[in-house]
Specification:
Blueprint (H helix, E strand, L loop, with lengths): L4 H11 L5 H8 L3 H13 L3 E8 L2 E8 L1 H27 L2 H10 L4 H6 L5 H11 L9 H5 L26
Antiparallel strand pairs: 1-2
Helix pairs in contact: 1-3, 1-4
């Protein structure tokens, strides 16, 4: 069954614990309309199930990956890992033309590789350096900012920039 790269990213986001539409959208940076279409498609393929639960303020809708969806996701992750290993091998052999061709073939799955942390970003940038092209020729700025290796997407290191004073006022 054919599943698109963005579908894989959404499925992965749900499996990571993002059960609400807004949380999935924040993590994947996919527009509301497109995300809605992807979720409908995933539900039609029985990769996710939609559950209505009673919440404090009324009903809430949560999404969950089915066993079939989880199996499909595992297959896709293995597939993209294999594609990354193939690109690494070509890079290590120094074949610039073949690497460029392989990058072009895998252009649509590069963001998925980033999202799941499959690729080594340092090697990825060295590949572009070897080919003499910019990363933006293959990957959009939004996708680069959406590197899955960062949990919340923030770039801070958790340190406080308020002079080091920290106290709890007790509420």
């Amino acid at each position: 069954m054919q599943i698109e790269p963005k579908d894989v990213i959404v499925l992965g986001s749900i499996r990571r614990g993002k059960k609400k539409f807004s949380n999935i959208q924040n993590e994947t940076k996919i527009s509301s309309e497109e995300l809605n279409l992807i979720l409908e498609e995933l539900e039609n393929k029985k990769f996710i199930k939609v559950e209505e639960k009673k919440g404090f303020f009324g009903k809430k809708i949560e999404l969950e990956v089915t066993e079939e969806g989880s199996n499909e996701l595992d297959k896709k992750i293995i597939e993209i890992q294999d594609k990354w290993k193939e690109m690494q091998l070509i890079y290590e052999n120094g074949d610039k033309q073949k690497l460029q061709q392989k990058m072009e073939e895998n252009k649509s799955v590069l963001p998925t590789m980033m999202f799941f942390g499959v690729m080594d970003m340092m090697m990825f940038s060295m590949m572009f350096s070897m080919m003499g092209v910019g990363m933006s020729d293959y990957v959009s700025q939004e996708d680069m900012a959406n590197d899955g290796s960062m949990d919340d997407g923030s770039m801070d290191d958790g340190s406080m920039d308020d002079g080091g004073f920290d106290f709890d006022i007790g509420f």
